[in-house]
Amino acid sequence: MKRHLLEAADLDRDDATLVLDTAAQIDAALAGREVKKLPTLRGRTVVNLFYEDSTRTRISFELAAKRLSADVINFSAKGSSVSKGESLKDTALTLEAMGSDAIVVRHSASGAPHRLANWVQGSVVNAGDGTHEHPTQALLDAYTIRRRLGRLDGVRVVVVGDVLHSRVARSNVWLLTTLGAQVTLVAPPTLLPVGVGSWPVEVSYDLDAVLPKADAVMMLRVQAERMNASFFPSAREYSRRYGLDAVRMAALSDDAIVMHPGPMNRGMEIAADVADSVRSTIVEQVGNGVSVRMAVLYLLLGGNA
């Protein structure tokens, strides 16, 4: 692996497979152990530098680093010198001067982790930048699909909803395609990015037409906080056309799984009974996220890669 993980395109097929295999080895090593901890990164320092609110991702990275015995510093932009106007560069250099080996960064500006990687000596992991990318989410999604279905090559993944504002969708498209999956995007035209025609995907506006062929259906949250205009007539209309309910779930093949990167708008893009069904991998995705992020930190900081 390279020194940083900034976007899904940083990973070729071998690199991505190495992360997934390492996560599986970590899962196996921790299975049945009362103390879920490995000494691999003892003496290393990982900084979680979060300029945007996050529950799942921040806690997941914190737990991953601690399970590898690293020291963890959680830095929230609120209540810090950032609120006094300190720049990203100055903050990063300050953290590095304190001895950080890796900085996990989430930022509202697309490209912020790339700039950070130019300023610091340690590793930088992108934990979500604007509407650009979220590579470790794509890795944990791929890991979840592989664990449930036993393969990624040839798997048909349907990604549904607010693709325009979704860094998760972008990272998943590139990573899953690299790993041999076939991706179809389903969304209203207003929620698809300009230039999607150049992506290695199929595009459909009709969810019901693509569901019977899907092996995995990934529902995306409608990101109302990033919308400053009306992208669809109403929540009810959106849910009727693009929401996954029990009737639509019944159209899936017997082995197909339902995914969601979270947080969910229950009753909007996904019905509660679907989210809580045996087909759903939503809780597994959260658990798998810790193992995958452990693998990423291990390979960047402690592994032989």
Give an account of the 3D structure.
With 305 residues, the chain is α/β, with parallel strands linked by helices. The chain folds into 2 domains: 8-134 and 286-302, Aspartate/ornithine carbamoyltransferase (Rossmann fold); 135-281, Aspartate/ornithine carbamoyltransferase (Rossmann fold), CATH 3.40.50. It has 11 helices and 9 strands. The protein has a 5-stranded parallel beta sheet. It has a 4-stranded parallel beta sheet with strand order 2-1-3-4, sandwiched between helices. α5 packs across α6 (167-178). The longest helix is centred in the last third of the chain and has 21 residues, at 282-302. The relative contact order is 0.16. The mean pLDDT is 92.
Task: Provide keyphrases for this structure.
single chain; about 300 residues; alpha/beta; Rossmann fold; 2 domains; five-stranded parallel beta sheet; four-stranded parallel beta sheet; 11 helices; 9 strands; about 40% helix; globular
Summarize the structure.
Belongs to the aspartate/ornithine carbamoyltransferase superfamily. ATCase family. The protein is an alpha/beta fold and 305 residues long.
